[in-house]
Protein 1
Amino acid sequence: MSLKINPVEQLTSEVEKYRKAEYSVNPLFLNRWSPRAYSGRKVSDEALYSVLEAAHWAPSSFNDQPWRFIVAKTEDQLKIFHEFLNPFNRAWAEKAPVLVLIASNKKRANGDLNSAHAFDAGAAWGHLAIQATLLGLSTHAIGGFDKDKARSLLKIPESFDLHAVITIGYRDNKETLDANLQERENPSTRKPLKEVIFEGSLNA
């Protein structure tokens, strides 16, 4: 059975209130944002692996594909992940049905250092987030976690850098969050394009 892809043909009114593109882009990019309210609805393996498949097709230096996706989807697996999330993030992230730790190998197959490994892992995260949005799923990248504890619990070698824990699931109403988080449960805005684009040289 094939997954139904949501083409995201138009922006939801919720996103339109917060996001306006200066130039034409597919609405998909504006509809992707990082909520914290998750429902208890399970994510099918078909949907999950579709999201991970998209991430794995990201570009990488010399096609090294340095990324690794450590997945927690069972109750026992999720409990381990919850142990290394900081308390603020755990308060909302423990409701997500899937957590994925993104790591990347700092070395190439021949033993040389790969200076592009983190850049490539970031590209994989971008692919993951976009595919999730197409499938009606939400994602949120968490940097607030104990990397040493995660490395120990998940038996990750020192040759890998740990980047982020990604929540994957279906959105719930923001009223399910603590009051202080409800105020932040909106699509973020962006700086004006002129503040991040420079032609010819970086004249910041």
Note: The longest strand covers residues 160-169.
Protein 2
Amino acid sequence: MNLRAHPLVRMLTALALPTSDYVVFGSGPLLAHGLRTDIGDLDVVARGAAWQALTAAARPVTAPSGHGRMVRLQIEAADRWLPGFDTDRLIDMAEHHAGIPFVPLTEVRRSKLTTRRPKDRADLALIDTALTRKPFTGDL
């Protein structure tokens, strides 16, 4: 799969955000690793110039988690992730796929274990297989 051809990735790259100031989180890294092709949205964590560009395009609102602010365009961009996830650290540890910064799968795994949503079970199994860990059993 050509990552840059995915419609959500095309929307993101059209924003021309500085790659040093954002990172793709949520299910996006599973797309980058070829673990999923059918993601419903693209979650981005942004700071600095990237956050300024996003907030110039749309008014920020309180994130559904109550933690931080977010901008909803065709992607969902936030100025922070869940509690316990440092924005600067996430962006600085990014892995680049097709020139786009993505959070490592280990951080996606940690996030999905933090939220413990039933819909994350399948993703956890995919991540664990990719990381060659003991497979996720489905117990949350």
Note: Residues 105-115 form the longest helix (11 residues).
Protein 3
Amino acid sequence: MKCYKCNGSDSMLKIVYLDKNNKKLSDREFSAYRIMHPELKESFQQVAMCGICMDSDGNGNQVQYSTLASKLNKRKKVKKHENYYVCPFCDTANEPLRNTCKQCDRILFSTQYETKRINGVSALKRKKGRKLWYVFSLLFVATVLYYFLPMGADKPMFLQTDFSEKVSSNVTKLTESKYTWADGSKYVGKSLNGKPHGEGKLEWANGDVYTGEFSYGEITGYGTYKSANGSIHVGSRVNGKPNGEGEMKWSNGNEYTGEFTNGDITGYGTFRYSNGNTYIGTLHKGTPHGNGILYQADGATFEGQWVDGRLQ
């Protein structure tokens, strides 16, 4: 295999996806883009690139990330971006391609609640407004306590001069960790207070492998789960079970793209069978149930209400 740009041979070629403007997306970014933006029909080209071409712009020039002009251009692009998502739990505006809230670590997308979308300008205003609100609130509380506390009373911690020292002793940071259990299972990745938290990889003794996001010891977030039996799931998980948008492939050739609910294929999606048939519509526990249409490999089409896999 040769590089798409320079046509050179390299053992470290990486697979990327190019849009119509030749913008590069990694495999994970491309999967997230398809799940988060199903309404867009933009086509992408899958190519292989060497390390030099990966770090160069469309004209072959090396990208200088540290220049002031580059930083200003990034700021302008952020302001024009239309895909900031507001967390329905803590009202935090999250950047594109995030699947969990950066403030409360909860899942942003689910069939059980609606996640609002705002543009980059509104997101920056929210961020600035929230910071100002925090500052004024802290000043107001500090002023009230300072003037109304009885003489000789102990002041709260945020009015004491050694505030930074007391807070720093209670802060716990994410650390890179490696864990091995008695049955042979292994974990490599970030951890918090001795539990997997953030990006990591978990390998079970039976051959199952999960690579993706963890939350306080639970497999909660976006990731890829490869089972020893050959099945692969890519998408959102909550407490170890597929929940929300995702893709599933089985060793027998069946494929599914759509909604999962508590580990089951329940919701709206597309199921492609190994015999060539394709079903598009609602399903319940992997079986057509509700409004949908079945396209058979021989050209026949069946559309209507389905109950437990049978057309009514």
Note: The CA atoms of residues 73 and 79 lie 10 Å apart.
Protein 4
Amino acid sequence: MDDLFSMHTIAHIRSDFSTKFGVPRQSGLVDALEAQVVFTPPYRNPDAVRGLEDFSHIWLIWAFHQAVRDTWSPTVRPPRLGGNVRMGVFATRSPFRPNPIGLSSVVLERVELTADLGPVLHVRGADLVDGTPIFDIKPYIPYGDSHPDAVGGFAAAPAGATLQVVIPPALLELVPPDRREALRGVLAQDPRPHYQSDPTRVYGFTFAHLEVRFTVEENVLTVRDILPRP
């Protein structure tokens, strides 16, 4: 049997993240994050999503397109362990894999039928960079996909919100009202690399066409500036 398979990009995500910095480390951690799944022209067929609106959640199968490498390593350094401990790549969700494939469970808000783009899926809680190619979409089946008694290894507990977020009112006014809750949620998750804790360092990432700059001291994240980005 041939062990090489070709896959087609059926859609791309439209999200508020132009780079991976700031993206939540798992799907569902920031429920207020909104995104859209836009199908590529060959798959803009309303019949392909018939019945999908009856499901509350869907699985997105996608590519770590910014982490493609020619080689792979059997071990990686998970951020959850501070980047100092090596674990088997198949015991992690690291993007650096033999095949750079990601899996995310997201809330399906609605299916919109548009004249120019065909069906567009509006989702919440996605952990994908804008433009990420999607290979497949599957409905989330509660009785088969949820295992409350499952053991989660070193990632058993969700990362959760860890920081108190302070955004000066004048800076908050620069953020569109429908993005403010999502931004707070992203910042509360502590987007810094786990191994960095310099209180004097100014970090920055792009979100919703804005550059958000912040510092962190102990458990308080303070937004220092918000600048428009093209």
Note: The longest strand covers residues 101-114.
